[in-house]
Amino acid sequence: MVNFKKEKFIPIVIIGILVIALLLSHNTKEIDMVTEKILAHSNAWVDYDLSEVQLHQGDNFIQPEVSWEPYKVTEKVKGIFMTGHSVGLTERFNRTIDLTKQSVVNAWVIDVKDDYGTMTYRSSVPMVKEVGADSSVKVRDFHLIMEALRENDIYPIARIVSFKDKQAATARPDLAIKSNTGAVWRDRKGDAWLNPYNRETWDYLVDIAREAAEKGFKDIQFDYVRFPTDGNRAIIDYGEAGKKETMAEAIAAFLEYAREELKEHGVIISADIFGLVTTVSDDMRLGQHLETLVPATDVLLPMVYPSHYALGTYGVAIPDKDPYTIVYTSMNTARERAEALETDRPKAILRPWLQDFTASYLGAGLYKRYGKAEIEAQIKATYDAGLEEWVLWNASNRYTWEALMEN
């Protein structure tokens, strides 16, 4: 894969544009002066946004068409999750950078829009401003975060919580899932959701993703890219669209739309899915069906946390106590199903979310404390299932680094 160096390319483009414009004016002295000035200050253009590169036309400037799709960057991801608060805390951020450099970890999944629908950084997306999603940001100088990741060769993945969005759905009830009374529907926790059937909600999410790509993220990872699974779903009214399109069709269509809209930005499109999606045959009434999603995305991330499986699943009495069997069975089945799918379209890579937390909330006797052995067992299960990538989840971003250190 070509690693395109934007900072080296941009000054050359600008010089070429200006020299051509000046040649047309036949002013040799002016050419020499401008060229010398640009070369002398080329280092200041390292972070220049290519979208601002413009061609001269009278007293105004216009933007040329540019596509970054040929420079898409892929990585065999071995990652961790980081919240906006974690990357915004200097000491924690620097400590995690140091640990990452000593370990096999090469990627960070960073919250861009979180579970509450709020942004990590100040956004220029109009609807973000409209709904107040960036009224209280976690990181003010986000470009410094991205520069540090680039300098330390850490692959940046943007996590965008999608249809679960209390902030936007409350501020824009016309875009929210409604009850049969016309009121904004809320789940068991009181959270409102954007309606996945509504195409305007798609554009909101894609606009946020586009901005993330322009900030330097290489992989756009949509989470909660599904319909609600709890609360009184019997009273939901999805409108006319819900009568014409299945849930699985709507979710796949959104991801395909996002991939097409973001193609010129050269980013990977990935999606988080429930762990059981790997082994059940239907969409579980949440819109996630494996064979439908495999050709709709570049990467699928089943959340195969052992603690999330019911007692007796796959013949395992207490799933949380047998992480290897749960992860291996889930991911090996998913791989076999993906390989068996007949399609002319590229198929998604499978990259599981693994558990790096102790699920004490399950109650005495139903969980075990997760440490080095449990993390290593899940990683081994992933490899044994014929896969090469994985990401660890810990909501507080405290990882079992002893299981991740380079040998």
TrEMBL record:
Residues 79-399 form the DUF4015 domain. It comes from the Bacteria. InterPro entries: DUF4015, GH. Signal peptide: none annotated. Keywords: Membrane, Transmembrane, Transmembrane helix. The chain crosses the membrane at residues 9-26. The keyword Membrane applies. This is DUF4015 domain-containing protein. It comes from Natronincola peptidivorans.
